C-alpha cells in the first residue's frame, strides 16, 4: 500500500491519486487537517507497543496494520488556527496571535510524532520528499556554488551600513524571504510575500538596524527556468516573465490578463549533470528548482523547493508529471509482490 501525507486542498495530490485509482493501486491519504478537528485519533505508548489509531474515513491503526511500500510526503496542513480558538475569548489581536502561534507549535510537535511513526516503522519503503530533508536556502546556495553552479551574490544582514555597501556594489538588489514563505491570513483575506527590488531610494525608510533579511544582486533576466526533479530525471520549462513589469522579478505575481509564455525547455547537458549532482548532495529525490537565464547567457541557480508546485510545469509542457509520480510510487508496490 502507498501512503500519501498531504493537505486536503492540494490539486497536485488529487491528480496523482487519479492516476493511482486508474491503475487500481491501493493507497492511503492522510491530510494534516484530519488531525485538527475532523477526526478522532489516539497515540498510545504502552509497555507492549507504540500505536497510532485514527478514526477518520474508516481508517484504524494505520501504522500498525499496513506495511507501506512507498510514502509520499507532499505537503502538510498549516492552516489558520485562529478558527479553533473559543469565540468567547478576548478578541484582542495580540492575544489571538499568541494563542494561534502556540497552537501552530503544538501541531508541529504532533506532526513530528506522526512522521516518526510513519517512517520508523516503514524504513524499508521508498520515500519521496522525506520531511527531514529540507535544507535552508543558504545551504542550497553554498552546495550549488561548490558544485560549479552560478549563484547570485547574497548577504543576510540586519545592518543598514552593510546593506548600503551591498547596494552600491550592484546596479539592482532584490530582497526575499530567508526561509519558506508563510502566507498571512487576516479577515478572511490571504496575503503573501514576493521578491521585491530594492534601490537607494528605499534606504531612507530603513532604520539603522532591522530584522535580519536576505538580499541578492538582481540578475538581468532573459527568461526564468523552472525545473522539476524526480528520481534523477529533470523536466524543464522556460518562463518568459520579462514580458510584463508585474512578473519581471517574481513570476508568481501573475498577470492573469496578460499571462506569461510557458514552454518546454532543454537544459545544456553540463548544467543538467550539475543539477542532478546538487540534488544528490542535498539528499533530495524530488523538488522544484528555480533558475534564471541571464542576458549575458549565464544560468543562475536560485533555490529548490522539495515540495514545490509542479502542476505549472506539467500541464503547459505536457510532461504528465502526476502520472510519473504515481508510477514511481507504484514501482515498489509491484516489486514487493514479486519477492
Globally, the shape reads globular
Class by SSE composition? alpha+beta
Domain module count: 3
- H/E element string? EHEEEHEHEHEHEEEEEEEEHEEHH
Low-confidence parts lasting 5 or more residues at pLDDT below 50? Answer: none
Task: Tally the beta strands.
Answer: 17
Task: Describe what you observe in this structure.
With 339 residues, the chain is α+β, with helices and mostly antiparallel strands. The protein has three domains: 2-132 and 325-338, no CATH class; 135-150 and 220-305, D-amino Acid Aminotransferase, Chain A, domain 1 (2-Layer Sandwich); 153-218, no CATH class. Helix content is 31%, strand content 28%. It has eight helices and 17 strands. The chain has helices at residues 11-23, 62-65, 93-120, 137-147, 160-169, 269-281, 311-317, 321-338; strands at residues 2-6, 27-31, 40-45, 50-55, 70-73, 126-128, 154-159, 173-176, 184-186, 189-191, 196-198, 209-217, 221-230, 233-239, 262-265, 286-294, 299-305. Strands 15-14-13-16-17 form a five-stranded antiparallel β-sheet. Strands 2-1-5-6 form a four-stranded parallel β-sheet. α1 packs across α8 and α4 packs across α6. The radius of gyration is 22 Å and the shape is globular. The mean pLDDT is 81.
Short description:
By secondary structure, this protein is an alpha+beta fold. 31% of the residues lie in helices and 28% in strands. Helix 1 (11-23) links the parallel strand 1 (2-6) and strand 2.
Layout of strands and helices, then pairs:
Layout lengths: L1 E5 L4 H13 L3 E5 L8 E6 L4 E6 L6 H4 L4 E4 L19 H28 L5 E3 L8 H11 L6 E6 H10 L3 E4 L7 E3 L2 E3 L4 E3 L10 E9 L3 E10 L2 E7 L22 E4 L3 H13 L4 E9 L4 E7 L5 H7 L3 H18 L1
Helix pairs in contact: 1-8, 4-6
Amino acid at each position: 500500500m502507498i501512503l500519501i501525507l498531504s493537505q486536503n486542498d492540494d490539486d497536485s495530490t488529487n491528480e496523482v491519486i487519479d492516476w493511482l485509482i486508474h491503475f487500481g493501486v491501493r493507497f492511503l491519504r492522510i491530510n494534516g487537517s484530519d488531525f485538527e478537528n475532523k477526526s478522532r485519533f489516539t497515540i498510545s505508548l504502552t509497555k507492549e507497543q507504540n500505536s497510532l489509531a485514527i478514526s477518520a474515513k474508516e481508517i484504524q491503526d494505520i501504522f500498525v496494520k499496513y506495511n507501506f511500500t512507498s510514502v509520499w510526503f507532499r505537503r502538510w496542513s498549516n492552516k489558520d488556527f485562529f478558527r479553533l480558538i473559543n469565540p468567547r475569548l478576548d478578541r484582542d489581536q495580540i492575544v489571538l496571535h499568541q494563542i494561534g502561534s502556540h497552537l501552530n507549535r503544538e501541531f508541529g510537535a504532533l506532526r513530528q510524532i506522526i512522521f516518526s511513526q510513519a517512517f520508523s516503522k516503514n524504513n524499508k519503503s521508498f520515500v519521496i520528499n522525506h520531511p527531514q530533508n529540507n535544507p535552508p536556502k543558504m545551504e542550497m546556495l553554498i552546495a550549488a556554488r561548490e558544485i560549479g553552479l552560478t549563484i547570485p551574490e547574497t548577504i543576510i544582514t540586519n545592518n543598514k551600513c552593510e546593506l548600503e555597501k551591498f547596494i552600491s556594489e550592484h546596479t539592482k538588489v532584490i530582497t526575499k524571504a530567508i526561509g519558506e514563505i508563510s502566507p498571512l491570513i487576516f479577515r478572511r483575506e490571504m496575503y503573501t510575500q514576493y521578491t521585491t527590488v530594492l534601490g537607494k531610494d528605499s534606504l531612507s525608510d530603513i532604520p539603522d538596524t532591522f530584522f535580519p533579511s536576505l538580499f541578492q544582486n538582481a540578475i538581468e533576466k532573459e527568461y526564468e527556468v523552472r525545473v522539476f526533479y524526480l528520481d534523477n530525471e529533470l523536466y524543464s520549462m522556460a518562463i518568459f516573465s520579462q514580458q510584463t513589469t508585474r512578473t519581471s522579478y517574481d513570476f508568481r505575481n501573475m498577470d492573469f490578463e496578460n499571462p506569461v509564455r510557458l514552454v518546454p525547455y532543454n537544459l545544456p547537458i553540463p548544467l543538467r549533470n550539475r543539477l542532478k549532482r546538487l540534488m544528490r548532495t542535498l539528499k533530495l529525490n524530488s523538488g522544484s528548482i528555480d533558475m534564471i537565464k541571464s542576458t549575458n547567457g549565464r544560468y543562475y541557480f536560485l533555490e529548490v523547493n522539495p515540495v514545490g508546485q509542479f502542476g505549472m510545469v506539467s500541464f503547459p509542457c505536457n510532461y504528465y508529471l502526476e502520472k510519473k509520480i504515481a508510477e514511481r510510487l507504484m514501482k515498489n508496490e509491484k516489486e514487493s509482490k514479486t519477492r
